[in-house]
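Hello forum,

I keep getting stuck at the same step: I have a sequence, I want structure tokens, and every attempt I make locally crashes halfway through. Rather than fight my setup again tonight, could one of you with a working pipeline run this one for me? It's a single chain of 276 residues.
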Amino acid sequence: MTKKLVPTLTLIAALAATALATAQAQTPRAKGAPITAAVVSNYPPLEFKDPASGKLTGFDIELGEALAAKLGTTIKWEETSFDQMMSSLATGRVDIILSGMTDLPARRDAVKFIDYLKTGPQFYTMKDRSAEFPNMLALCGKKVGASRRTSFPEEIAKWSDDNCVKAGKPPIAVTGTDGSADARTQLRQGRLDAAVQGGETMPYIMGQEANTYVTVGKAFTFQYVGLAIGKKDDALAAELSDAMTKMLADGSYAKIAAKWGLTDYTVPKLIVDSKD
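Reply #2:
Ran it on my machine without issues. Output:
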């Protein structure tokens, strides 16, 4: 009898937890209340900790604060891991995700995206090895790393299949890393031959570590980075869309992008779920 009750109680507890999470996620945010945003502070120049002050800074941080100001409110940053961002939004612990998240079709089942930057995975290597990699095909058979929390490892593998394998060359050995900083560390240590991260981050990284890295070829696919909102949170989505439209029109969005060297990656108009 006891053996039958344990799974039943476990199921009841799981259902209760699910119901609570759903109730939290569906609780409407009061108009004008502060907006809580999930952020992972390790992706400069979008979001990172200022070395001098230890405070959050970057393009996403300034964009979020400017959007909140347009709505007559403030934004509260909730630091978390990349793996926990979606669950934080689903359970209502945060109102939005603003942390360099790629707008992928698979994610749109759970969230709505307001896209605010263009992006594309970019191969790069150490400058002192640039002669080894005059073009992207030179990466075939080499060890290339990218953050396993992103879609980049899958995109590297796809590029390898479409280019290396079809050309009769050995495939790229894709390595998932603990983030872009870890990929750069492994690259400097010689454990990787090359790495991949969003092209929009490369000018900043290369500026911070002068004469250290070189890009290989161009970004090999095209995507958008989006601010994520709960799928059913239509009111907040409408508010933020309106604020973004105003920032596009008055030039404040372009000004923030220019400050962080992202002018080439800006969007020209409001884009929701990469459909517009």
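The domain at 2-119+225-272 is CATH 3.40.190.10 (D-Maltodextrin-Binding Protein; domain 2). If your local run keeps crashing, start a new thread with the error log.
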